[in-house]
Design a protein that fits this description.
alpha/beta, 5'-nucleotidase,  domain 2, 2 domains, six-stranded mixed sheet, 30% strand, globular
């Protein structure tokens, strides 16, 4: 038979979203319902593939307490046909990721993560899957941000330029795509903006017919076409899954019909997977016994709805880290705050899941001119379009930025303008310190001449835990510390 039907499911940026939430009497998301949906489609349909576009790890104490081993165990039950490496897959270290790969009963691919000494790839760059007479080549592409997480591992590198990544796709297509290859799919973890750029650089003769992406947590109602190639993402978490319905003519070797939608996952479309439920209950029982002690109460639930704006939780964390410190301004990475809502009851587990990236706190001295340059770079156009680093500032900072003119109309601290010759002590976590040049567009070497940077705390969460334990009825509001004018 020449005409074949194929369902291609995909998820991205699950970030330990293992448990369902209840809303309006229905259960939404969670790995048990997602697994139930995937397994039902596999049972009811002949040709079903499931792809994961990276960032399985982080976001849940179940993941962190087991350093990702629990996530691999749960994903083994979900059984994706192919996965790619995301930037958070390296959070526990490259060596540990290679160990986790050995524990996975599903393939993990990546074409552009390599050892710099001899250019040897760390993972298989592509995978061919034959299903009912259709051969699909999947190629994995990683974000350049992986270098930010592995900055101390000098032997690890990546093709950080999208043009080089496109060239690598061409090399793989030219060398390994054959007459038997029917469909070529890029599974990327580079964010929607880079996906667009990558698609525009692909030679049609390489045969790429779709891009399944991740990293920018983009929710889509329909595919976006660039260079004739559909680009899709499925937001983040387990509350939805992307779904391609494909009709393929094996005689003419072409897709004749292609439809895509983002399918919500709830108890109206799937029944819980009992095996997955038992696995999650096992791990949750272990972590609950260790982490379900109450630290504090908030006056009300506090929110962090977007990483590109001032938020209530962002102000709370920036203020408590600056409180009784030796520095003037805390710059809290927006992406380091992982929950969109927290409170009013705060358990130890909640704290760890909200700020999972626990590392040193560094203090640096910058001039007003350097600080201005840093802020302008943070607020550049890409901040609103993609997945750049953004920051929450501690009390007293006021930034008024006009997007249309790319100018700062106000930059002050405690009501006093920050002049170019003023000296400021700022603080940030190790991740941002190690990537200072690329995140702020100011050379760390230049800043270090003002004052040698030093560690002022060895654990951010030590500070957070102590503050929570000694304060109650905590509250925070959006105060206009960051004001963006159109």
């Amino acid at each position: 038979m020449a005409i074949k039907e194929l369902i291609l499911l995909h998820s991205n940026d699950m970030h330990g979203d293992f448990l369902p939430v209840e809303k309006d009497g229905h259960l939404i998301g969670g790995l048990s319902l997602l697994s139930g949906y995937v397994h039902r489609l596999r049972t009811d349909n002949r040709n079903v593939l499931y792809v994961n576009a990276g960032d399985m790890f982080r976001g849940s104490i179940i993941d962190e307490d087991y350093l990702g081993l629990s996530t691999i165990d749960l994903m083994n039950r979900l059984s994706p046909d192919v996965t790619v490496v995301g930037n958070h897959e390296v959070d526990y270290g490259l060596a540990h990721l290679l160990f986790l790969e050995k524990c996975a009963r599903f393939p993990i691919i990546n074409a552009n993560l390599f050892v710099t000494i001899n250019n040897a790839r760390l993972f298989e760059p592509y995978m061919n899957i034959d299903i009912d007479g259709i051969r699909i080549m999947f190629i994995g592409i990683l974000t350049d941000e992986v270098l930010a997480s592995t900055r101390s591992e000098k032997v690890i590198g990546s093709f950080v330029d999208v043009r080089e990544a496109a060239r690598e796709v061409g090399i793989i297509a030219d060398n390994y795509r054959t007459r038997k290859t029917d469909i070529v799919v890029l599974v990327t973890h580079i964010g929607i903006e880079k996906d667009r750029e990558l698609a525009s650089l692909l030679d049609p003769d390489w045969g790429v017919q779709m891009i399944i992406g991740g990293h920018s947590h983009t929710f889509m109602d329909e595919p976006e076409f660039v260079n004739g190639i559909p680009i899709v993402q499925a937001g983040q978490g387990s509350g939805q899954v992307g779904r391609f319905d494909i009709v393929y003519d094996t005689f003419r070797h072409r897709i004749t019909e292609l439809a895509w939608r983002c399918q919500p996952i709830d108890d109206t479309v799937a029944s819980p997977d009992p095996v997955m439920e038992d696995l999650i209950a096992h791990y949750k029982g272990q972590t609950d016994a260790k982490y379900k002690r109450i630290l504090t109460h908030f006056a009300r639930p506090l929110t962090h709805p977007s990483r590109t704006q001032e938020t209530e939780l962002g102000n709370l964390y920036a203020d408590l880290l600056q409180w009784e410190s030796s520095f003037d301004i805390m710059m809290m990475g927006s992406g380091a705050i992982r929950k969109e809502i927290l409170g009013p009851v705060i358990e130890y587990q909640d704290m760890l899941e909200c700020t999972p990236f626990d590392d040193n706190l560094w203090m640096l001295k910058v001039t007003g001119a350097q600080f201005r340059q840093m802020v302008l770079y943070i607020l550049r156009d890409e901040a609103w379009e993609g997945h750049t680093e953004f920051y929450q500032f501690s009390k007293g900072v006021r930034i008024v930025y006009r997007k249309s003119t790319h100018t700062l109309e106000e930059l002050s601290l405690h009501g006093e303008p920050i002049t170019d010759d003023r000296e400021l002590l700022i603080a940030m976590q190790t991740y941002h310190y190690k990537n200072f040049d690329s995140f702020f567009n100011v050379p760390l070497e230049e800043v270090s001449r003002n004052l040698k940077p030093r560690v002022v705390a060895t654990s951010v969460n030590n500070i957070v835990e102590e503050y929570f334990a000694t304060h109650s009825d905590l509250d925070a509001h959006v105060e206009g510390r960051i004001t963006i004018l159109d």
